[in-house]
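Students often ask why inverse folding is considered easier than folding. One informal answer: many sequences map to the same fold, so there is more than one right answer. In these notes we will look at a single instance of the problem. The structure comes first.
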C-alpha cells in the first residue's frame, strides 16, 4: 500500500540518484497569481520520471533484477528507467511509440537501454511491452500505475512543502496520473489544507472524463503537442487516488500550451516540454480563477522538448499571444500604395517581416491587388490599433 512512510523512504533512497530541484519565484508570469515553479525540467534525464523509476527498481528482488526490466513510454519514463537500470547494473528494454521525439529516443539509447519502437501511441507501446514481458520474463516497470513509482513521484510534494512555505495550491500535469497521485497523497498527508489541481491536454482528457463519469474510461484516440501526457486511459490506482485527493482537473488547448512554453522561454529563460508547461498554461488561460491572489506552485514536470518542433511551437505561441500577425489588405494597383501602408504600420510601431503582393481575383476591381503583410506586434490591442489606422486611411482588410 501507498503510505506517507513509503514516500519518505523513497525520499531517502533517492538522495543518491536525483537532484532536489529548485523552486523559482516567477512573478513576471502573471500579475494576478503568486506563482512559483518547481523545476523538474532541470532534473536528471530532464524529467521527474527518474524519481519513480529509480525507487521502483531499488525495491526489486535479486531475482527480478536478474531477469532485467522492460518499460513503455513516450520518452521521459524511458529515460528514467534506462538510467536507473544502468546505475543498478540491470539490463533494460524500452518500448516507445514510433512518433516519440527523436531527442527522447536517442537519449534513452544513450542511457544504456535497448529500444523497441512500436507503431501507434503510448497505449500501443504498453501492449507490446506486456507481450514481451510475458514471452521473455522481464520485470515490468509501469510508468504510472504502480505504488512504488507513485511513491517516488510523491517526493516532489514533500520537497514543495519544504521549499514554498504556506503554499496554497499545487498545479500538476496529468497523463496516466502517477505524478499527481504521488504529489497529492504526500501533500494531503502532511497538510490537507493545500489544494491540488490537475491539468490535461484537451486532446487527451482521459482522467478528466473518468473522474466526471466516476469510472475509468478509454479514449478512442489522443492528439496533443504534449506527448508526455498523451495517454488514452488512466491507471486503476491513479484513478482512485485522484478521486480521493485531487481538488479539480481542467484542460488546456495546444495553443494555450504553446503560449505557456513561449512565456517560460521569454520571461524565465526556461525550456519546458508541452506536458511541463500545462500547469502554467492553465493559470495564464484563466482556467483556475479560484487561485487568483493565492500562492501557487506550478510543477514544470519536464524539459525534453523536441528541438525540431520547437520553432513551430514558438510560432504558434506568438500567434496566440498577439505577438505575430498577418493582414491581407485590398488596394488599388497604383504607385504609392505600399509606401502609404508601410508608413501607417511604422507609425503604429509594428515591425514588418514579410510582404507578398498579388493581383486581385476575378471578383475584385480590375486594377485591384492584394497585399499580405506579416508583422511582429506587441499584443492583440496593438493589432487592433494597426487595423483601425489602416481602415481610417481607406484600406479594406480581408
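Output (designed amino acids):
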Amino acid at each position: 500500500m501507498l503510505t506517507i512512510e513509503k514516500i519518505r523512504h523513497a525520499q531517502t533512497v533517492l538522495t543518491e540518484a536525483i537532484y532536489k530541484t529548485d523552486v523559482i519565484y516567477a512573478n513576471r508570469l502573471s500579475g494576478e497569481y503568486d506563482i512559483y515553479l518547481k523545476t523538474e525540467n532541470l532534473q536528471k534525464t530532464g524529467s521527474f520520471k527518474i524519481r519513480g523509476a529509480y525507487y521502483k527498481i531499488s525495491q526489486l528482488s535479486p531475482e527480478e533484477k536478474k531477469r532485467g526490466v522492460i518499460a513503455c513510454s513516450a520518452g521521459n519514463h524511458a529515460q528514467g528507467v534506462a538510467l536507473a537500470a544502468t546505475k543498478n547494473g540491470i539490463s533494460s528494454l524500452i518500448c516507445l511509440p514510433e512518433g516519440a521525439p527523436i531527442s527522447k529516443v536517442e537519449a534513452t539509447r544513450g542511457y544504456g537501454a535497448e529500444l523497441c519502437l512500436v507503431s501507434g501511441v503510448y497505449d500501443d507501446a504498453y501492449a507490446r511491452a506486456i507481450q514481451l514481458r510475458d514471452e521473455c520474463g522481464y520485470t515490468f516497470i509501469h510508468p504510472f500505475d504502480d505504488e512504488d513509482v507513485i511513491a517516488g513521484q510523491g517526493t516532489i510534494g514533500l520537497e514543495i512543502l519544504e521549499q514554498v512555505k504556506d503554499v496554497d495550491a499545487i498545479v500538476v500535469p496529468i497523463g496516466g496520473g502517477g505524478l499527481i497521485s504521488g504529489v497529492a497523497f504526500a501533500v494531503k498527508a502532511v497538510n490537507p489544507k493545500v489544494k491540488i489541481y490537475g491539468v490535461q491536454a484537451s486532446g487527451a482528457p482521459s482522467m478528466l472524463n473518468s473522474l466526471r463519469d466516476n469510472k475509468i474510461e478509454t479514449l478512442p484516440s489522443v492528439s496533443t503537442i504534449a506527448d508526455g501526457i498523451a495517454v488514452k486511459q488512466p491507471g486503476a490506482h491513479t484513478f482512485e487516488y485522484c478521486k480521493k485527493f485531487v481538488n479539480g482537473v481542467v484542460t488546456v488547448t495546444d495553443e494555450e500550451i504553446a503560449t505557456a512554453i513561449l512565456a517560460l522561454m521569454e520571461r524565465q529563460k526556461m525550456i519546458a516540454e508541452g506536458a511541463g508547461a500545462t500547469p502554467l498554461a492553465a493559470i495564464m488561460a484563466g482556467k483556475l480563477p479560484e487561485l487568483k491572489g493565492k500562492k501557487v506552485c506550478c510543477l514544470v514536470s519536464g524539459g525534453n522538448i523536441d528541438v525540431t518542433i520547437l520553432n513551430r511551437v514558438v510560432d504558434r505561441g506568438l500567434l496566440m499571444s498577439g505577438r505575430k500577425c498577418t493582414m491581407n489588405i485590398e488596394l488599388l494597383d497604383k504607385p504609392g500604395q505600399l509606401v502609404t501602408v508601410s508608413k501607417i504600420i511604422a507609425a503604429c510601431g509594428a515591425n514588418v517581416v514579410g510582404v507578398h503582393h498579388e493581383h486581385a481575383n476575378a471578383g475584385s476591381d480590375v486594377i485591384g491587388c492584394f497585399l499580405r503583410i506579416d508583422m511582429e506586434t506587441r499584443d492583440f490591442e496593438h493589432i487592433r490599433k494597426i487595423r483601425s489606422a489602416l481602415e481610417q486611411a481607406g484600406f479594406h482588410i480581408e
